[in-house]
Design brief:
Layout: E1 3-4, E2 10-11, H1 25-55, H2 72-78, H3 81-113, H4 119-127, H5 134-144, H6 151-158, H7 173-197, H8 202-210, H9 215-226, H10 228-243, H11 247-253, H12 264-274, H13 278-308
Antiparallel strand pairs: 1-2
């Protein structure tokens, strides 16, 4: 309800401030609700992030005196062949993992959304690996990939195909981990795409069917354009997750064979917790952060320009 003010104008009643730095009742209530979240966020995220930025400019190694080296750690990375190898492996894994995860996630979402029988069972079955321990899944896949007793080689033998070395081969190790990661992550993409599909108005499909559109035309002209915001979300989160791949690498190959599967996060772990080069590991983590930030902003801008066309 609007009331007259002293100036003769009408407007909503606003709470008055008693002093320059005083807070209204609503602002105090907002602080009370935000404070429980900000305390752990400050302790476990903001302070460690600022500390890692400081340590990235030092030679901090836990057991030795710390000295300021400035950008020395970042210059060291430019000449570190193993660091560049880890970036190459990370990009290789990301390029192999994301398209397959998004494609199969969309196909599964379309299938479940079409009204197949036991749809809830399909949701649970495909989403279950996502909430299962990464180490437990890695142990299962280690057995599947075993060159002597693994189920995959036993299946290939039945088909008359020579057994593969999988994780023991420098050329097959990353593709093998991609297979495992797609199987473990496709459920998350399916659930997100399914939520997006259920938000598309059915009237759009009905109007297109009246005009004679077939199923493929419905998907191409209605489903995919309407899913662009969902696709952006899945793409950005998948890139962040793929660049942070560590659990399967640590449990299944430990970066081998011959550093064929070492990734950026694996190198951060090795330098920080095996060699105790904490300063160098902190510098690598900030390079990873900048890479992810740049990729996320690029994808966001690319998708926005696509949606405005």
């Amino acid at each position: 309800m609007a009331i007259a003010t002293r100036t003769g104008q009408t407007g909503a009643v606003r709470p008055r401030r008693q002093g320059r730095f005083s807070l209204t009742r609503q602002e105090k209530a907002a602080i009370v609700f935000i404070l429980p979240l900000m305390i752990p966020m400050t302790i476990y995220w903001i302070i460690p992030s600022l500390a890692s930025l400081y340590y990235s400019l030092t030679n901090y190694s836990v057991v030795m005196p710390t000295a300021w080296v400035g950008l020395g750690n970042f210059r060291r990375m430019m000449d570190d062949g193993l660091f560049w190898r880890s970036i190459k492996n990370t990009v290789y894994f990301t390029v192999g993992n994301i398209p397959l995860t998004m494609l199969f996630g969309l196909i599964l979402a379309l299938s479940v959304n079409a009204g197949i029988h036991a749809r809830n069972l399909f949701r649970v079955v495909f989403y279950l690996p996502l909430v299962t321990s990464t180490i437990a899944l890695s142990m299962v896949w280690l057995w599947l990939f075993d060159p002597n007793f693994g189920l995959l080689n036993a299946f290939l033998k039945v088909l008359g195909i020579h057994p593969q070395m999988w994780l023991q081969s420098t050329s097959q190790a990353i593709p093998s981990i991609v297979i495992m990661s797609v199987w473990g992550g496709v459920g998350g993409a399916m659930i997100i795409y399914l939520a997006g599909l259920q938000g598309i108005p059915e009237s759009l499909y009905e109007a297109a069917r009246v005009d004679g559109a077939n199923r493929w035309q419905l998907i191409r002209n209605i489903t995919l354009p309407m899913l662009k915001p969902v696709t952006l979300y899945v793409l950005v989160t998948s890139i962040i997750g793929s660049f942070q791949i560590f659990g399967p690498i640590y449990a299944m190959t430990d970066g081998g064979p011959a550093f064929a599967t070492t990734t950026i996060v694996h190198q951060i772990y090795v330098n920080g917790f095996r060699y105790f080069n904490m300063g160098y590991a902190a510098a690598q983590s900030w390079v990873l952060f900048l890479l992810l930030l740049g990729l996320s902003l690029f994808n966001l801008r690319l998708m926005r320009s696509g949606m405005e066309m």
